[in-house]
Amino acid sequence: MSDIERLLRHDARIELPDDGFATRVIGALPARAAPQPRTWLRPALVMGSALLGSALAVTLSPQAASMMQGFQDLMSLRTGSSGAIGGLAMCGALLLSGLVLALNDD
């Protein structure tokens, strides 16, 4: 054992008088907050809503339009095609759910 280890062990055994400081600090701490039940429920509802919104956007978009074609239309700035509208609706549902999760104050 080195000298520094011996000094540290010796100093660790010395009890420091606190004149009741620790008791006062413990007494001044606020009471424990009640545990929050079901902290998983809100994110699960938001993600479920996002999935439902995305599924509805895909289901209710015209069947002749594919999502990939819709995103290609958006890249070409043709926002009026049915695939582009379906893609925008799906992205909007996901964006809205992401904002709700980001602004969640829990």
Explain this structure.
It is a single chain. The chain has 106 residues and is mainly α. It has one domain. It contains 5 helices and no strands. It has helices at residues 3-13, 21-28, 41-60, 67-75, 82-102. Helix 3 (41-60) runs antiparallel to helix 5 (82-102) and helix 4 packs across helix 5. The longest helix has 21 residues, at 82-102. The model has no long low-confidence stretch (mean pLDDT 78).
Short précis:
This protein is mostly helical and 106 residues long. It has helices at residues 3-13, 21-28, 41-60, 67-75, 82-102. The chain has 5 helices and no strands.
Helix amount:
55-70%
- Helix-strand topology string: HHHHH
Count of DSSP helices?
5
Q: What is the CA-based Rg, rounded?
A: 30 Å
Number of strands: 0
Sheet with the most strands, sense and barrel status: none
From the spread of the alpha carbons, the general shape counts as elongated
Number of domain modules: 1
User: What percent of residues are in strands?
Assistant: under 5%
Structural class: mainly alpha
Overall pLDDT level: 78
Termini separation? 50 Å
* Contiguous uncertain segments of 5+ residues: none
